[in-house]
Amino acid sequence: MKRRVARSRVQCSEAHMDALTSPPSSRVVGSVLPAPLAGTAAKPEQLAGLIPPAAAGRGVLDGAFAVLDALAHADAGLGLTALARDSGLAKTSAHRLAEQLVTLGAVQCVEHRYYVGPRMLRIGQRWQPDPLLRRFAQAPVHTLAVQSHAMASLRILHEHRLRYICAAVPHGHAYMPDPADPESIARTATGRVLYATQPDTDVTLPDCWTRREWRNLRESLRDPRATVVDHQDAVAGMCCVSAPVWWPNGACAGAVTATVHADDPPADLPTLVSYTACRIDTALQQLQQK
Description:
- This protein starts with 9 loop residues before the first strand and ends with a helix.
- A hairpin with a 6-residue loop joins β6 (about 230) and β7.
- By secondary structure, the protein is an alpha+beta fold.
- It has two domains: about 45-125, Orthogonal Bundle (Arc Repressor Mutant, subunit A); about 130-290, GAF domain (Beta-Lactamase), CATH 3.30.450.40.
- Residues about 1-10 and about 10-60 have low confidence and may be disordered.
- About 40% of the residues lie in helices and about 20% in strands.
- It has helices at about 45, 60-70, 80-85, 90-105, 120-125, 130-150, 180-185, 190-195, 210-220, 270-290, and strands spanning about 10, 105-110, 115, 150-160, 160-170, 230, 240-245, 250-260.
- It is elongated.
């Protein structure tokens, strides 16, 4: 029996963001190089803002990333002494690299404290956790959003955070921020699918569910039509239905989820989500055959 699908305006997310950052609705605009470097004969990697023109080399590149990594873990910023300590660099080297990164917009300095700069935000928003998976999932996820009139997404679990592979939202709907801690994530349908499908040795399961509940969930997800339903378990007024997507080798590739503003999910939503997951599974199987 053919299903009539209402025509709906759907926006597709082109950004791949940290779970706490809402996807932008417009294209990211490239930054302009600082005047001292623009128009010079500097190498491309120097213009990228990571290797100083005077001392390009692998050691300097490692140092620049050591500075950025240290700042990425310091919400309150770091003074020069703390930056040198946390990056493992000599104080003079930390200062020189930090100031060069400030000039390029990769680091900002406020009241003698260094923070990650806006240029890193623009670059980070373009990160794609799995470009190949996104290529095969984007069309099915878009179709799910149109058919269900709900936010549809494919997400993965990376470093205990939910990351978008792709997403589509009907016109007039808003993106919902995802929980940041493992227990809150595990209360969502998406989190349950992603945690339950991880190998036992790869992840510590959150304590919000008992070992028996995790084991039963893991066994139920072996059914190719299985879905997990969140009846406002994580957010009041929000219901989610999620299903796993599988790589040809049997590993979980991600979780397809439809999210609706309702007291209960529509009766046909689990079927739509399961069908979408199967479409992506089939596409990935064909990839293996090529």
